Amino acid sequence: MNQTGNDSSVPPSWEQALATALATRQARKLGGFLRAEEDTGKRIYPPRSMRLRALELTALDQVKVVILGQDPYHGPGQAHGLAFSVPQDVKTPPSLVNIYKELESDLGLARPAHGNLENWARQGVLLLNNALTVEAGQAGSHQQLGWEAITDAAVAAVAAKAEPCVFMLWGNHARKKAERVPGLGSSRHLVLSAPHPSPFSAHSGFFGCRHFSQANAFLVTSGRGAVDWQL
Fold it and tell me: Does 7 score more than 70 pLDDT?
């Protein structure tokens, strides 16, 4: 995936799904932009080797649940390629704290002492941001530069799967992304919507949404097996 400025290539299970999006002029421009920004000394998060981490940990044929984020965390050491997740030794961000509160309320799970969600990813939870990079300290700075076509293609590939999947749409950006994806309204999938877990909106309907128990009930009924949300 050199054209998007990454050290790692697209994982094999995603290659066909993303090929068309990656071949576009905009994708090539995105790669050039990222390299040029770094050449001028700007810090881009996450590091190049982690930009496709969500796809590396969750193969297309293993996806059970999709959770959509907006863009990576823009603070030092926070972003590591998974939406809402931070490395083990980094303070848990406020939105993830609220996700943990909802997990506790919904499933009775104790709140984890860390914010690393890799265990979810390895069970088939695709933690995908809309844009996969951000400039340090500049939230949303890499929106509308070309990442959207690539991540839209990834979501569309999941929606096209024969196996039933759950899509958790938290906030307006996630809902708008879902609206661009053909087939997401298929009756074989479960689409769950709620406000974003941010402290600014979590009390407007994210708390009490019970998405985790609904997802597991659907997955069990569909024969795909529940996700162990405990971290």
Answer: no
* Lowest pLDDT segment from 25-29, 102-106, 194-198: 25-29
Torsion of CA 23, 124, 102, 76, to 10 degrees: -50
Across the strands, what pairs with 167?
66, 191
Q: CB of 78 within 8 A of CB of 139?
A: no
Q: Which of the residues 7, 61, 71, 106 is marked catalytic? A: 71
Q: Which residues pair with 194 in a beta bridge?
A: 170
pLDDT at 1: 44
- Phi (first) and psi of residue 125, to 5 degrees: -95, 110
The 10s digit of each residue's pLDDT in 46-66 is: 999 999 999 999 999 999 999
pLDDT for 30 beyond 80:
yes
135 pLDDT more than 60:
yes
Q: Based on the residue annotation, tell me whether 71 is a catalytic residue of this protein.
A: yes
Strand 190-194, strand 166-170: pairing: parallel
Cβ neighbours, 10 Å, residue 19 = 11
Residue 152 sits at φ, ψ, to 5 deg, of: -60, -40
Read off the pTM.
0.94
Query: What integer pLDDT is reported at residue 2 of this predicted model?
Result: 44
| Side-chain-facing half-sphere of 169: CA atoms under 13 Å | 19
Half-sphere exposure of 26 (CA within 13 A, CB side): 10
Q: Answer whether 31's CB lies under 8 Å from 47's CB.
A: no
Instruction: Give start and end residues of each alpha helix (H) in the chain.
Output: 12-22, 25-39, 53-57, 94-107, 118-122, 147-159, 172-179, 211-221
